[in-house]
Design goal:
single chain, 87 residues, alpha+beta, two-stranded antiparallel ribbon, 1 helix, 17% helix
Length: 87
């Protein structure tokens, strides 16, 4: 065990695209809090919560912060960014 607890915040949306949008909006509005891990935000259907869809890119920037781009973005990583060659 890591000794950490995770808060789950159910937000309903009519489809996956809008659920991801709600996740990104919620994450960005709380990003000023040091304990918010944007890269850990996922969405799922209510009936199958074991299958999760990432909301944000999980690559980290230099300094450890996460990129605030969508998980399915096609933007190249900035020079010196870990994972730069992944795209």
């Amino acid at each position: 065990m890591t000794g950490r607890f995770v808060a789950h915040l159910p937000i309903s949306a009519p489809d996956l695209a809008r659920a991801k949008m709600a996740g990104r909006t919620t994450g960005r509005s709380l990003a000023f809090l040091a304990r918010i891990d944007l890269g850990g935000i996922t969405v799922s259907t209510e009936d199958d919560q074991g299958i999760r869809h990432w909301v944000f890119c999980d690559r980290r920037l230099v300094g450890g912060r996460r990129r605030v781009l969508r998980a399915d973005h096609e933007t190249r990583a900035p020079p010196g960014c870990p994972g730069e060659s992944a795209l």
